[in-house]
Specification:
The complex is a heterotrimer.
Chain A (H helix, E strand, L loop, with lengths): L5 H6 L4 H11 L5 H10 L2 H4 L4 H4 L9 E3 L6 E4 L4 E9 L1 H6 L1 H17 L4 E11 L7 H19 L3 E8 L8 E11 L14 E6 L9 H4 L20 H15 L4 E6 L4 H13 L2 E5 L12 H6 L5 E6 L4 H10 L3 E9 L3 E6 L2 E7 H6 L28 H9 L8 H4 L10 E3 L6 E4 L6 E7 L2 H6 L1 H18 L3 E10 L6 H21 L3 E7 L3 E2 L2 E2 L3 E10 L16 E5 L10 H6 L12 H16 L5 E4 L4 H13 L3 E3 L7 H6 L6 E5 L1 H14 L3 E7 L3 E4 L3 E4 H16 L5
Parallel strand pairs in A: 4-5, 9-12, 17-18, 24-27
Antiparallel strand pairs in A: 1-2, 2-3, 3-6, 4-6, 7-10, 7-11, 8-10, 9-11, 12-13, 14-15, 15-16, 16-21, 17-21, 19-20, 22-25, 22-26, 23-25, 24-26, 27-28
Chain B lengths: L1 E8 L6 H12 L11 E7 L8 H13 L5 E8 L1
Antiparallel strand pairs in B: 1-2, 1-3
Chain C lengths: L2 E5 L6 H12 L4 E4 L10 E4 L13 H4 L2 H11 L4 E4 L1 H9 L5 E3 L7 E9 L4 H4 L7 E8 L3 E3 L2 H9 L3 E6 L18 E5 L5 E4 L15 H13 L1
Parallel strand pairs in C: 1-2, 1-3, 3-4, 4-11
Antiparallel strand pairs in C: 5-8, 6-7, 6-9, 9-10, 10-11
Helix pairs in contact in C: 1-7
């Protein structure tokens, strides 16, 4: 038997004090299998040991929340006995090492999280962050990640309806791949993971177990160094075809009442799934590892427990229902094995070849996971950067074209045309708008779905950035006419052992909390990915937010496209002269500094509620929230989508570059018929919402009186070409 | 007995994957590389089939399933 | 009229096909699991899109060799209309019901978008809603839609009016610039000689209402159902 030396403990990522705790819990030395189990269960990825203290402060409740954080995914009520189940999860490190498989298995994992709970997945989204466009690895990573996401989701037949993509040097060595899935279930058919029923069979279904991904969860919790590319073998390989069969088989079995509890085997595979099920149910589990379906010969207990082979599930069945369940899984040509039973011992006992190979108390291991209050320092809030300190460009039209063709704003069509975004036949708002909208099949309802985060704001001022990320998703949903319901968060940060990084985390959480409270928009699921650093350089703090909203009548949905000539264009919200952290500042002045746009959550709420009510009342013909690049970019995007121009006149109270490109929050552009525009102005006055007429739609150019005039086709050219040009291999 | 079946695209059928591989090799400095054609290798364990029957059996497998003879060529070798 | 939709492991446009047929037909379509031995007596067999058997080996190869497809081939030979969309088209070429093969897209990428198609061959049953030369809009969503046939087959398809649709622009111009996936002669769909089988890569079942972005697919299915009633 392997002797547990200090080196072995260190290789397993356990600190000395953590190992002391292991000895205390066991009252003896662990064997290697047991050490491996402690190691993954107490990894940052599984235990949230650095983040738990702060995550607990986020609001998680609302009358429509059926299940908040802690289960495989969050659940919200969408009426008529139906629920939306959703979550976003990171697969950053594997995607950097092997972009296709890393991204593909990231999608596979989040899909399982959602259908484990009884939901049929109806939409995927992805929040992606890559290094600077000209970094030598960027093209390879973008290409691999996009085809991996498409490869998995397309084969599963679940539409990938959008997401977001940023490029920034802070991600040169640590890309972010955050995958989100939304599913629909009946509220009386939601499945949870707490094991119950002493003597009930523990059943393994799905693919066989191989040696893939061993220690993936610990890898996801360690900083990269230059040797990380050698870690390639730990990346799992996805099989979307098997997952599609697993989805259909699980949903078929879930239509019966045979299942007591179910949990997918994600990070840390059989270990975390079995411990979580036992811990939540307050029971023990006994597993005979000889019965685990294996792909390779001679696998050790250590390897079986730590394998991250994909497309597997663990279930507790009601007694006597094994044959019924087995028949379903065999119909779908999947492995099905009774591997153990629920016990009243409170222990996880693993046997192999007749020997006990691990004997661990469940609750202490799961609940006594270390929890740290890591030291943190607050990021100093920078001062706003006033527009009058920057020269007004001589050619504002050219400036706008530069922004429209910049890495931040250029069209992502090259990406989403590689995703099947229409399969399932319910996508009524395709990628490219503020949020995607999918109908709830067979009903008049629809779900609006978005992901958003502005990492440069979070880096400059974490609290403002955290609030802004939540508010922007709320605004995206609002702009479609949906009632925002709840969010999932995917918290991507650097090394939490550095106080300034921990300070970014604490700040973002504080901002998110304030925004969730102000907007009645709780967090129902999430994931934390720390140690996104290479050689001591961390990523920009990136709390990616996935939000969903409900359109009770899908016909009320609004889109960003200008619909007809001669309609009145209106601006909701107020513009200031702060140019800090704007895309304008970055792209035109080459500077990344100053304070991000301020957040006023009361104004955010008032403006958003006004826009949504106006859409639902049928007064609005198009709507778009203003974000990166400011008003001029929002107008350009509406013109592109509607293939028609606009004539705008701006008040001269602000310098032209602020009026056009400042990124003040809580703003929208909406259009209406001339008659309805008057009604909107009256309503806005009553609601204390700043609303002004900007101009009229029509013609084929975007004209801002005295500032710029460019044709819609010129805008389209720069906007559509940037990403294809980036991705075209020179000379190919 | 085992068989190793090699399947390749017929001449005249465009092979964009082969072209992409050639391009990538050129990018890495392997300038001598001319045309690249890619395909696949399938290894079959034939169990205890009689050696005399094997060629005809594998031939049938190739034409019925393993290769699409509209676009693909196949060849195979038998291994003990 | 009765319709059946064949479902393989990995099919994923089966529900979309069912919805589209039922919207025009008004009565339920039969969903036939590949493992079921008997195919009901129907007036239309639809082979839907998806990734049957994970696209492993070749797209459509494993499904093409399944027992249910032997039955479909028999029915088709005796005149039952067959609509084979996307993966269904790949399966149909693998069985030999339709000539040619579908290769990886020339740009190596999955492509999902609405495309303009020029209606070419005349076939009352499948394209009776459209005039020859008209442009219709259906979405594509495929990785392997690059139609290949040898010169002789191609000449026969063109000569006998068996090319159903070609990738074109909004004005019906067919050129290399409108050839999204490298298909020979821009072919997006073909008929068999008897005219009772249509194989096409684009998905008419995806544009069946204004809310989904267009109704050319609805016109297609309305005509199909009417012509079989």
């Amino acid at each position: 038997m392997t002797e547990i030396t200090k080196e072995i403990v260190a290789e397993h990522g356990l600190s000395e004090s953590e190992y002391e705790r292991v000895l205390e819990i066991l009252g003896r030395e662990p064997n290697l299998t047991e050490l491996g189990i402690f190691s993954v269960m107490w990894s940052e990825h599984c235990s949230y040991k650095s983040s738990k203290k702060w995550l607990k402060t986020l609001p998680t409740e609302a009358p429509w929340v059926i299940c908040g954080p802690g289960e495989n995914a969050g659940v919200v009520d969408i009426g008529d006995g139906q629920a939306a189940i959703f979550k976003m999860e990171s697969h950053n490190h594997p995607s950097y090492i092997e972009p296709y498989q890393g991204a593909a298995t990231g999608v596979g994992g989040i899909l399982r999280d959602v259908f484990t709970m009884g939901a049929r997945p109806v939409a995927n989204m992805n929040a992606l962050r890559f290094g600077r466009p000209d970094h030598p690895k960027t093209r390879h990573l973008v290409s691999g990640v996009v085809s991996g996401i498409g490869g998995y989701g397309n084969c599963m037949g679940i539409p990938t309806v959008g997401g977001e993509t940023n490029f920034h040097a802070s991600y040169d060595g640590n890309i972010l791949v955050n995958a989100m899935t939304v599913g629909i279930a009946d509220t009386d058919k939601i499945f949870y993971s707490a094991a119950a029923g002493i003597g009930n069979p523990v059943v393994y279904v799905g693919s066989k177990t191989g040696r893939d991904g061993i220690h993936g969860a610990t890898m996801a919790s360690a900083e990269f160094d230059d040797d990380s590319e050698e870690k390639r073998p730990t990346v799992q390989v996805g099989d979307p075809f098997t997952e599609k069969l697993l989805l259909e088989a699980c949903l078929e079995l879930m239509a019966t009442d045979a299942i007591v509890a179910i949990q997918d085997m994600g990070a840390a595979g059989l270990t975390s799934s079995s411990f979580e099920m036992a811990d939540k149910g307050g029971v023990g589990i006994q597993i005979d590892l000889d019965n685990v379906p294996m792909r390779e010969e001679g696998m050790t207990p250590y390897e079986i427990m730590l394998s991250e082979s994909q497309e597997r599930m663990l279930m507790i069945l009601k007694p006597g229902r094994e044959d019924e369940a087995r028949a379903i899984f065999e119909k779908w040509e999947l492995d099905f094995a009774v591997i153990g039973k629920v016990t009243d011992t409170g222990k996880m006992v693993l046997t192999m070849h007749g020997d006990i190979v691990a004997d661990l108390p469940v609750a202490p291991l799961a609940d006594s996971a270390p929890e740290y209050d890591r030291p943190w320092v607050k990021t100093e809030a920078p001062a706003p950067l006033k527009a009058d300190t920057l020269p007004v460009p001589a050619d504002l039209g050219k400036t706008l074209l530069n922004l429209m063709g910049s890495s931040e704003i250029a069209s992502r069509k090259w990406i989403w045309e590689q995703y099947d975004h229409m399969v399932m036949g319910d996508t009524i708002q395709r990628p490219g708008g503020d949020a995607a909208v999918v109908r709830v099949h067979g009903t008049d309802k629809a779900l609006a779905i978005t992901t958003d985060c502005t990492p440069r704001y979070c880096y400059a001022d974490p609290e403002t950035g955290g609030a802004q990320a939540v508010a922007e998703t709320w605004r995206n949903l609002t702009a479609t006419g949906a009632d925002p319901l709840a969010i999932t968060d995917c918290m991507n940060f650097g090394n939490p052992e550095r106080p300034e990084i921990m300070g970014q985390f604490v700040g973002c959480i504080a901002g998110m909390k304030a925004a969730c409270n102000a907007l009645d928009y709780p967090v129902v699921s999430g994931n934390v990915s720390l140690y996104n650093e290479t050689n001591g350089t961390g990523i920009h703090p990136t709390p990616a937010i996935g939000g969903i909203g409900l359109l009770k009548q899908s016909s009320h949905m609004s889109t960003i496209a200008f619909k007809a000539d001669g309609e009145t264009i209106l601006l909701v919200g107020e513009t200031t002269d702060n140019m800090g952290q704007t895309i304008y500042l970055r792209e035109i002045e080459g500077r990344e500094e100053g304070a991000p746009p301020a957040i006023n959550l009361e104004q955010e709420r008032r403006n958003g509620d006004f826009v949504r009510a106006s859409i639902q009342a049928g007064l609005v013909t198009a709507s778009h929230d203003i974000s990166d690049g400011g008003l001029a970019v929002a107008l350009s995007e509406m013109a592109l989508a509607g293939d028609r121009g606009a004539t705008i006149t701006l008040e001269d109270s602000l310098p032209a570059h602020a009026a056009l490109f400042a990124e003040d929050q809580a703003r929208y552009v909406i259009t209406a018929t001339a008659e309805n525009a008057q009604t909107l102005l009256e309503n806005a006055k009553k609601a204390d919402v700043p609303l002004q007429i900007l101009g009229t739609t029509g013609h084929n150019e975007l004209k801002v009186t005295g500032m710029l005039a460019i044709s819609v086709s010129d805008i389209r050219q720069v906007h559509s070409q940037w990403l294809p040009d980036l991705m075209t291999v020179p000379g190919h | 007995m085992k068989a190793r079946v090699t399947i390749s695209l017929k001449n005249g059928v465009l092979d964009p994957q082969g072209k992409a591989i050639a391009h990538a090799l050129h990018g890495l400095g392997f300038d001598n590389v001319g045309e690249v054609r890619q395909g696949k290798v399938i290894e079959l364990d034939l169990g205890d089939i009689a050696a005399a029957d094997a060629p005809a059996e594998v031939e049938k497998m190739c034409t019925q399933l393993l290769a699409n003879t509209v676009i693909e060529n196949y060849e195979f070798e038998l291994l003990d | 009229m009765k319709a059946a939709v064949i479902v393989f492991p990995g099919s994923n446009c089966d529900r979309d096909m069912k919805v589209a047929i039922e919207q025009s037909l008004g009565t339920p379509a039969h969903m036939v699991w590949h493992g079921d031995s008997d195919l009901p007596d129907v007036d239309l067999i639809a082979i839907p899109g998806g990734f049957s058997y994970g696209d492993y080996l070749r797209c459509g190869a494993i499904a093409g060799n399944s027992p249910i497809m032997r039955e479909v081939v028999k029915r088709a030979a005796s005149g039952t209309p067959v609509l084979a969309v996307c993966n269904g088209f790949q399966i149909a070429t693998e069985t030999g019901m339709l000539p040619g093969a579908l290769l990886r897209n020339a740009n190596q990428k999955f492509i999902c978008k609405d495309v303009d198609l020029k209606v070419v061959g005349e076939n009352k049953r499948f394209s009776g809603a459209f005039a020859s030369g008209q442009v219709v809009r259906f979405p594509v969503a495929h990785h392997d839609g690059n139609y290949f046939a040898d010169d002789e087959t191609l000449a026969r398809l063109e000569g006998e009016g068996l090319v159903a649709f070609k990738y074109a622009d909004a004005n019906g111009e067919v050129s290399d610039a409108t050839n999204i996936n490298g298909s020979r002669n821009n072919i997006a769909g073909i008929y068999n000689e008897a005219g009772n089988i249509l194989g096409l890569m684009p998905h008419p079942e995806r544009l069946i209402s204004e809310q989904l972005g267009g109704t050319d697919g609805k016109l297609f299915f309305d005509n199909l159902v009417n012509s079989l009633n």
